[in-house]
Amino acid sequence: MALKAINPTTTDAWKKLQAHFETIKSKQLKDLFGSNPERANDLTVQWEDFYADFSKNRMTSETLDLLIELAEELDLSDAISKYFDGDIINATEGRAVLHTALRAPKDARVFVEGGNVIPEVHEVKKKIENFTNSVVSGEHKGHTGKAITDIVNIGIGGSDLGPAMVVDALQYYKNHLNTHFVSNVDGDHFNEVIKRLNPESTLFVIVSKTFTTQETLSNANSIKSWFLNTLPPEAVAKHFVAVSTNIESVKAFGINEANIFPMKDWVGGRFSLWSAVGLSISLALGYKHFESLLDGAHKMDTHFRTANFKENIPVISALLTVWYNNFFNAESEAIIPYTQYLNQFATYLQQGIMESNGKSVDRDGNPVNYQTGTLIWGEPGTNSQHAFFQLIHQGTKLIPADFIGYVESLHGNKDHHDKLMSNYFAQTEALMNGKTEEEVLSELKTQSTSETEISQLTPFKVFEGNKPTTSLLIQKLTPESLGKLIAMYEHKIFVQGIIWNIYSYDQFGVELGKQLAKSILSELNEGADNVQHDSSTQNLLSYYKRNC
Ligand code: F6P
């Protein structure tokens, strides 16, 4: 059944939230803490190895109740059931959205068009496991009898970002295989990767759901030509595998069926790392760790499905985005992991969140009359503190931030870890408390600054504070906890889409750019100059053609 389509701004809860916003918009977080000694406990959810503290957000328990009322009025529970049960919730593409089925246990039953998809999911997982084991153990040899030493994932967007982020994040758990990612159609990208590789000991994993993406096919073809400079065509069978829904096109590329890892159209590209798209993850970390990642995601699925909204981490997190985006008019959200391992996490989430919820038409096909998707950005702390934190602290924009930290470090260097985490705690406190005029004055006085200087400097040194943060404290970065974390954001995306009454699982905007690039490429290749463009594009094309 279809998702309901209700304009959120027409609900009673929205009106109540508007009225409530007027009473809360100028309240200071530190005063909210002062007036309620139980605030931190009231607004924290502890679940398994996750401690999610929402209390440094500009809300009260009443705000949360009203946001939950909004979710209920929009029938979020019904939408969640449809999401997990395989209903066609990606209606614009006529598809179910079932990344959750990819991590469901063997005995689960999820039906698409009358058939249970779980047995096939587990068949593909078995194929991934067997192939991983044979490559990692060295049993799978290259054409000349050498064991595989290097894996190259060729894909873009969801066929790159998820696997690349996870392999980097979980490098502590990696095996001996070197893993590389080629995504950009920029020829310099793939040349920089292959220049270090020996084709005799390299395995190429071509990942493309559609197997039509220009970047991936160009890279795959160029890499295959480079490979065939050294090895004969029959060697392709030992060195090229593919992940796709488009089996015929993969075969036409020259990969035989045994080397194809299938995926289904009900897996969205940006949610596909749990499918065969995660083959590079499995190869890099070993199948056992890949499975733990999936198990973690499944645990988060269960939490999301069963916890009541008041204790539901993805639900609260999504509702807070709505609160800031639609009532405080915040435009962006920062993701700040206090671990270098999550260096690529914000980039990964940019696709997940912005490709999903960057929509301006509602589920009835009408333009929305409210704001939808947020801008996502971020970098690991502490590096980001020395880059863009100044703007969060003292700029004019409200930027809610998720702080993600771990209780334990992986290499166990407690001295460094305590320093890292003291920055995490200090920043959330500083963002909330700011610095008052009195504090600045007394600080300047102790520095024996002159009265004139004190009065000149004070306005610049006062921090307003009241900057909202969510603190996520996780026990340790493991494949399982990373699976939980990624799934948490996936469900947050889903909830936002439901509240905003948009379709989160298509991406027609990106596809327009892909089509235009194709037609301009044929102009460049064929030298045609009779195609009409605006004068700016025309000049740019002429300049490029004259000078290349
Ligand atoms: O960026 C648009 C997009 O369609 C993404 O949704 C997808 O992840 C990416 O292109 C790659 O697509 P494919 O896996 O089909 O090559």
From TrEMBL:
GO terms for biological process: gluconeogenesis; glucose 6-phosphate metabolic process; glycolytic process. The active site is at E355 (proton donor), H386, K514. This is Glucose-6-phosphate isomerase. Its EC number is 5.3.1.9. GO terms for cellular component: cytosol. PANTHER family: GLUCOSE-6-PHOSPHATE ISOMERASE. Belongs to the GPI family. Keywords: Cytoplasm, Gluconeogenesis, Glycolysis, Isomerase. Gene3D superfamilies: 1.10.1390.10, Glucose-6-phosphate isomerase like protein, domain 1 (3.40.50.10490). Catalyzes the reversible isomerization of glucose-6-phosphate to fructose-6-phosphate. The keyword Phosphoprotein does not apply. Pathway: Carbohydrate biosynthesis; gluconeogenesis; Carbohydrate degradation; glycolysis; D-glyceraldehyde 3-phosphate and glycerone phosphate from D-glucose: step 2/4. It comes from Winogradskyella epiphytica. One of its GO terms (molecular function) is monosaccharide binding. It is found in: Cytoplasm. The keyword Cytoplasm applies. It catalyses: alpha-D-glucose 6-phosphate = beta-D-fructose 6-phosphate. InterPro entries: G6P_Isomerase (IPR001672), G6P_Isomerase_C (IPR023096), Phosphoglucose_isomerase_CS (IPR018189), SIS_dom_sf (IPR046348), SIS_PGI_1 (IPR035476), SIS_PGI_2 (IPR035482). It comes from the Bacteria. Pfam families: PGI.
